Amino acid sequence: MMETKIMKVSGREPSDIISNLPHDVIKFILTCLPLRDAVRTSILSRKWRYNWTKVPKLTLDSRLWKKTKQNISTPRVKFAVILFQLLSLHQGPITECGVSISDLKDCPEIDNLIFFLSRNGIEHLDFKFPKGEKYKLPSSVFTCSHMRHLTLKYCLINLPPAFEAFSRLLTLELYEVTISDKSLENLISCCPKLEHVELEISVPLNSIEVNAPQIRYFYFGTKINSVCFKNTPLLDYVYIVMQDINNGSVERGKCNFMEFFGSLPALKDLNLDYFIIKTLIAGIDEIPVRLPMLLLCLRQLYLCEIRISELNDIRCLFCLIRSSPYLEKIGMEAFNDKGDELPVLEYLEAEYHSDMKLNQLTKVCLKEISGTKPEMELIKLLLAKSLKLETMLIEPCIEPESPQTLVEILKQINEFQRASPRTKVKFIDEV
């Protein structure tokens, strides 16, 4: 009450703190708000009326065009209206834009938005298009000279002949897109600062060569015959799930087992599936005891669907182990097939009596273990050769035709000699 009287006596109007906020503070507030709420700030005061039109970050998704009791327009119409307002009213650069139109089947105006963004300093672009017939990405995307992060989902990419480079691009993420292997290879090689790549391509590819001097992270999940690395001295994380492209048959790729790892001197974390291993092995006459070069940086190794009963798969595993003196973690997901176990058992027995030591290995994770003789011999070998092993985690796959029960497997493993007194064997019973 006293405060009100003082204001009346003095004749002063209460100060408009909101309107007098520093420009940077207003910009930060609007950037943190959803676009709908940012537009609604226009009613706060006359000075705030057009502040939203200068927001450098935009997020467009179904929350903006879903039907409400107050507005029953179709999503397609509402989306068109929103784009018209943005293209006609927005001022200044747009550095980041995320668009998810997965619920819209027809949106021809999207070409105009992409063209608008390409002329307004876009740096971070994240577009998720509808499933079904793939949206053909306009060539204006490839004129964004300031692009630093590009994420695309469900679209068709044709690299234009005039494309020179994304000279500033750091991150490239392509999910369920259609692109030729040659265009993909050129796109990667034309990004000299590229550090992070995630690829899931819709159509099978023949082969790609990754030429990226600054790349550090590479994830690849699609059907392809061959993946090669060239000029990748900093690449430390590689995850490749190639999938079967030839219905079980294996063709020789462009690079073999030794060439593949020879281009990865900084490799720290490696995750490969069965098919790429087979492709790499197909390119050599005999799997070496160890690689010509040591993988001095490799700390984690994971092999998916490895055939423990196949001699070549086991030789490949131990070649990598011997070539990685500082390996700390090994993970394997076994694929049990009915092969000739004798060659593998003889190989593992010879290794058991060899002078091989796993001096840095602290953790082993084995999945889909059913208690076959090769599996048990491999477990026995790893326990006997790992001087610092702390944990061996086993996820069993016990089926009716399995040779042993879970209790029998555990009993047998507990009898194995362990090089490290700290080793603990743990089971995760998912049955």
UniProtKB/TrEMBL annotation:
| The F-box domain, residue ranges | 15-68
Which Pfam families does this UniProt record tie to the protein? F-box, LRR_At5g56370
Q: What is this protein called?
A: F-box/FBD/LRR-repeat protein At1g13570-like isoform X2
